[in-house]
Amino acid sequence: MEVSVRTGKREFDANIEKEKDRYKIDIEGKQFFADYEPLSETDGNLIVEGKSYHVIFTDNSVYVNGVHFDIETIDPLKKELLKSTKLEKDEGAVVTSMPGNVKKVLVREGDRVEAGQPVVVLEAMKMENELDAPKSGIVKKVNVKENTPVEANAVLIEIE
Amino acid sequence: MEVSVRTGKREFDANIEKEKDRYKIDIEGKQFFADYEPLSETDGNLIVEGKSYHVIFTDNSVYVNGVHFDIETIDPLKKELLKSTKLEKDEGAVVTSMPGNVKKVLVREGDRVEAGQPVVVLEAMKMENELDAPKSGIVKKVNVKENTPVEANAVLIEIE
Amino acid sequence: MFDKVLIANRGEIAVRVIRTLKEMGIKSVAVFSDIDRKSFHVNMADEAYPLGGKTSAESYLVMDKIIEVAKKSDAQAIHPGYGFLSENEKFAKMCEDNGIVFIGPPPSAISSMGDKVTARRIMEKAGVPIIPGLEKEGLTEEEGLKFAKRVGFPVMIKASAGGGGKGMRKVLNESEFSKAFRQAKSEALSSFGDDRVYIEKFLEEPHHIEIQILGDKHGNVIYLGERECSVQRRHQKVIEESPSPFIDDDMRKKMGETAVRAAQAVGYFNAGTVEFLVDKHKNFYFLEMNTRLQVEHPVTEWVTGVDLVEYQLRVAAGEKLDIKQEDVVLRGHSIECRIYAEDPEKNFMPSPGKIERLITPSGPGVRDDSGVFEGAEVSLYYDPMISKLTVFHRNRKLAISRMLRALDEYVVAGIKTNIEFHKRVLTHPDFVKGKYDTTFIDNNIDYLLERENVNEDIAIVASLIRYYNSSFAGKVKEGKKTSSKWKDYAKNCWII
Amino acid sequence: MFDKVLIANRGEIAVRVIRTLKEMGIKSVAVFSDIDRKSFHVNMADEAYPLGGKTSAESYLVMDKIIEVAKKSDAQAIHPGYGFLSENEKFAKMCEDNGIVFIGPPPSAISSMGDKVTARRIMEKAGVPIIPGLEKEGLTEEEGLKFAKRVGFPVMIKASAGGGGKGMRKVLNESEFSKAFRQAKSEALSSFGDDRVYIEKFLEEPHHIEIQILGDKHGNVIYLGERECSVQRRHQKVIEESPSPFIDDDMRKKMGETAVRAAQAVGYFNAGTVEFLVDKHKNFYFLEMNTRLQVEHPVTEWVTGVDLVEYQLRVAAGEKLDIKQEDVVLRGHSIECRIYAEDPEKNFMPSPGKIERLITPSGPGVRDDSGVFEGAEVSLYYDPMISKLTVFHRNRKLAISRMLRALDEYVVAGIKTNIEFHKRVLTHPDFVKGKYDTTFIDNNIDYLLERENVNEDIAIVASLIRYYNSSFAGKVKEGKKTSSKWKDYAKNCWII
């Protein structure tokens, strides 16, 4: 199974397979054979090459022997979708590369916005995503309404 | 709300009502005003007349300040149903006082049974109940089949 | 002895006091704010009564309410812990007026030591060395500057009624003096309602070393060794140890006897702490006296074997001290690490939230004084210290190893803590050698904030297994558990 | 010193050893049976390797497998803990043959002390008092009876190769002798493959008091005070304390020096325990020597300040003892309560199952050496001891109060434990006075099993609130959480 991984510094695709009772994992060319045993809803013990680790999972983090790490894992397909289409036809256009549902429109026509200010909340891939203004300026046009679906590559908002 | 309570030694009906943020509870004429605050899925803190107690619930028990108690609580209606009809028309008849579903028949006709030996498992009131032979003897008749419903007061098995 | 004692405090210190009360067969009465209904000290106490309110000012600082609870519950005495009302002369008097024993010193000692100008004057008279300074009613800027030039810069300007860094200014040279003087005065006024300030010589590379004393109502005062508290961040102690690696037996005796003299000068009874600044030439100067139990008291308990809370209670009940000075022997080495809910990587910002997972260390020579439990919410309303971890071993080197072992066992998940920061301090070569002063953290902050991330690959392996299993269990549907951070990522990837 | 040590054990003692290894900077290697894959010691260790198997015989007792893991992991030494292979001469030799240091005494000392007849002979020669007894090859029933009549009944018949009560018979009078003799022989044969028995005078109201010793490879042996272990149930220690309330300094010195003589007689090094029986006239007799770390070693660590595991490692690595006899001072009082997963009300039957909730005590003077965690399964395969709770205070009375406080904090939900039983022992007037011997539990069992149920009304209140809230939350649907016990009730109510 291919999984995209991101840590504070690294970003790569890893591979994980189950072989009998253990997991075979590829991380940037390094291979790990891991024996994992859950201890509770949050805790587990991991034995990798004889070394034993106490692992704790919370909603956003993993702790190894008590030390905190932020590791993000996602389906590579989703990741690709998220960053595939690099449209740059209009510097002032807020465009979605994925189909989704407009959750919230945060600006109205005529509003003054700063570059980087969130202008639309889009729900796509089961996630909420804030889309930011690509540049500072005045909102010329809002092409979408809340709670309506949009197509990939749609221009949601235009900024002048 | 009326609740039937049973401890190791006592058995009685108690009353509990909610008054604003606290509970008003009647136990055998004694009145308690209790402030209860859950701390987690299993734990809570209870303040009764100024006294503070750490309470822990497991599937079958309650712990007060770490000390274990078995307290059983049930809807009084269910309890009444469970013991209402005292039929004694036939000493050898295995009778149900409630409607239910025959989960398992543990004996066959002609079997020798001892008094007190379980002969039928009946599912009623969302609980499984073992019905025991009322006397020692030979199973004369089995009137029910597994996984079939039975009416209240039905004679399930006859022992001679 | 008392039958019932109210603890006018919260968190770990309330729990700490309750433990000794239980051992003495004394009933404990907790009080709590609305925020603290679910807190550990409420659950631990025999009785608990609400004060209402959220902030300290609305709850733990409301004297009337606390006295009312004490009366209602028939508590004969009140233990104030530290902070809150522990050094409030008015509250101590109010207890007295209501026939309740205040577990602390006489109100007069609180007020003498509470005002820095008064304290300096009394100490000077008692032959306790004080930092060269100028304090007088109506001190003018000109007088201050003249003094500063005489003793030499840098100098400190401090609020007479103050504490905790408020109204305090370090002045490096003449040109800064005027502005700093005015700022200190106005900060003093807004913080303490009293704009009086005084000026002191600033000591370079100073150690903060304090002496624990214990006095009874019959005039007996003893000292129980010292605590080295120089690992500080913005005047906030982080790690303390006893004995101090900086001083020897002779100096300990000299400082101890001086501390006893300081206490006797104000007719002190109760446990108390005389804080000294010690310069690099081992001159020591009176800094202030804390007229209450100190946060870091467990290190003294470890090395002396004395339960300080027990003796606070016994003294308050009128008992004579049954420990003589010659009975006090320091029998090894103890270190305390204060566990804060804070994020060292984000400038030590408090990190409130739910403690999702809590594993506390145990085994030989380890003591954890915690104010929280797994599932507890750390709120922003009060101090972010969630626990004090202390260890004991026969010498300093072994005590450091033991503390590192205990910190390795300590797990707090869900909020950020300074546990990793502590490990960096304890392995810093200067700390290991015992060569550090109050500038240590500031001077080494980059080193102390570094992280090694040795197990990052293992964290990735674990995350992959979690992802793999939850995928097959159909739990990734929500995309929440395993990829919530991809929100930010996705956001960055939008083409806009 | 070693870089890496394998612990050939499980549970709390494996965790205990790992803690000191960590403090010494030594890597720890755990081994585990299939049943123990999820256990605490695996999680705590730096490395962990499976042994396979479920029973001890299939796992922790398989010498080849353990040696193999030691080699594979490059462990230079093996710590055997207690039980399992800790007193197995063959295993000690096997380690030696494989170039691995066995952290224990020389194999010859194990074998000398392992055989009771041999041990008695050596002790007698070394001037260590032994219980009047008769041991000879080919002892006949007639010879035995003659001896019994001479020293007077009651007498004990014991297996020469035995231990732990197997092959042991108390004979009250002449008429019982013949049957008991034959039973003891056959039990000895089936338990140890060796039917030799010996006969001893039975001591009335005996105390079980043991001396902790520590020896190095250079001939130095010291003693570290005693432990009073008379609170026993079927030869199983339940509560231990140090010092013993029964002996004084003179007797301590006499017993200590005798224990050192006993150890030196077999060329002992490592930590070890010389067990004595002490009769009511304070005569003491050698019982046996345990040539390994003892379960109850923490009470000695508390009162002497010595980390016994650390010294086991240092001695095993060839270091000379840096503690002299005169350095050993008992500095207060320590008590241990063994926390067992057992149901005192059901004849102390083991109570396996899942620990649904676990709260361990902390604060001043409390140490918990646990082998489990919340969520752990206690299996029937191994010892039901889940933890050892020890406390320290400056005297016995205060130590008892502290232990009661700690036991009050201790919560184990989901399985039954003996925590309430401990509280009854600690508050029994004879225990409080320190007047008890090995017959204490048997003679007071009814009192000790009584329960007060003071908070039953509160338990009912809590249950009602739970029921009320789950009713409104629609959670009673299943009838499971709140009324599972009504199954039995319903059953009784059927009309049949």
Assign the CATH topology of the largest domain in chain A.
Answer: Glycoprotein, Type 4 Pilin
The low-confidence runs of chain C, each spanning 5 or more residues with pLDDT under 50, are 475-496
Largest sheet geometry of chain A: 9 strands, antiparallel
Low-pLDDT runs of 5+ residues of chain A are 84-89
CATH architecture of the largest domain in chain C: 2-Layer Sandwich
Helix content estimate of chain C: 25-40%
Number of discrete domains of chain C: 4
CATH homologous superfamily (4th level) name of the largest domain in chain C: ATP-grasp fold, B domain
Strand content of chain C: 15-25%
Q: Largest sheet of chain C, order of strands side by side? A: 14-13-10-11-12-15-22-20
Per DSSP, the total helix count of chain A is: 1
Please count the beta strands of chain A (DSSP E, at least 2 residues each): 17
CATH class of the largest domain in chain C: Alpha Beta
Just name the CATH architecture of the largest domain in chain A.
Answer: 2-Layer Sandwich
Instruction: Report the C-alpha radius of gyration of chain C, rounded.
Output: 24 Å
Q: Give the neighbour order of strands across the main sheet of chain A.
A: 8-7-6-5-4-3-2-1-9
Question: Could you report the average pLDDT of chain C, rounded to the nearest whole number?
Answer: 92
Fold and architecture overview:
The complex is a heterotetramer, with 2 copies of chain A (160 residues) and 2 copies of chain C (496 residues). Chain A folds into 2 domains: 2-77, Glycoprotein, Type 4 Pilin (2-Layer Sandwich), CATH 3.30.700.30; 86-159, Beta Barrel (OB fold (Dihydrolipoamide Acetyltransferase, E2P)). Helices cover 5% and strands 55% of the residues of chain A. Chain A is built from 1 helix and 17 strands. Chain A has one helix spanning 76-83, and strands at 2-6, 11-19, 22-27, 30-38, 43-48, 51-57, 62-64, 67-69, 72-74, 93-95, 100-105, 112-113, 118-124, 127-132, 137-142, 149-150, 155-159. In chain A, the strands form 3 sheets. Chain A has a 9-stranded antiparallel β-sheet. A 4-stranded antiparallel β-sheet of chain A has the order 10-17-15-12, with no helix packed on it. In chain A, strands 14-13-11-16 form a 4-stranded antiparallel β-sheet, with no helix packed on it. In chain A, β3 and β4 form a beta hairpin. The longest helix of chain A has 8 residues, at 76-83. Chain A is elongated. Chain A starts with a strand and ends with a strand. Chain C is of the alpha+beta class. Chain C folds into 4 domains: 4-103, Rossmann fold, CATH 3.40.50; 132-201, ATP-grasp fold, A domain (Dna Ligase, domain 1), CATH 3.30.1490; 207-449, ATP-grasp fold, B domain (D-amino Acid Aminotransferase, Chain A, domain 1), CATH 3.30.470.20; 455-491. In chain C, β4 (77-79), α4 (89-97) and β5 form a beta-alpha-beta unit. The N and C termini of chain C lie far apart (74 Å). At the A-C interface, β1, β2, β3, β4 and β5 of A face α17, α18 and α19 of C.
